[in-house]
Amino acid sequence: MLLNLLAGIPIMLVCLLFQAIFVGICLRRYVRFRQDHEVFGRSLQQIALLALVMLLAMFGNLLQMAAWAGLFVLLGEFADFSTALYHSAVNFATLGYGDIVMSERWRLLGALEAANGILMFGVSTAMMTAALTDLIRHGRDKPPGSP
């Protein structure tokens, strides 16, 4: 169990770093775009802005899954990266299909990745909720008929 923690905790920290970077990028882009463009009341621009934030957040989550997959390959659990990435995505998203399982020696890493994934998806969801709330709130503040 200690070996699993020693292998998993550094990857969890890397994932936390990735998440912090992508949340920072998403929020900076959101604020900059909102300042440069009058998106309130313009549905298509609002949708594009939210889609961009979602895509960046999802890319950050995929990067984290790839980090876990790299660890699984490094530990010799999977011979190829694509299988490791599939297994990692199932763990990270907490699906738990069970069609591919890790050896008894490293299987605690799956639970660590699932805990990491649910937290990171929660942060992504909170970021999206904040952006959506901001768009709704500022859209309401505009007087009727204003651009």
From TrEMBL:
Signal peptide start and end residues: none
Transmembrane segments: 6-27, 47-75, 114-136
Keywords annotated in UniProt: Membrane, Transmembrane, Transmembrane helix
InterPro entries in alphabetical order: K_chnl_dom
SUPFAM superfamilies per UniProt: Voltage-gated potassium channels
This protein's record includes keyword Transmembrane helix: yes
Domain annotation Potassium channel: ranges: 67-133
Transmembrane helix recorded as keyword: yes
Pfam families documented for this protein: Ion_trans_2
Protein name (database record): Ion transport 2 domain protein
Organism: Azotobacter chroococcum NCIMB 8003
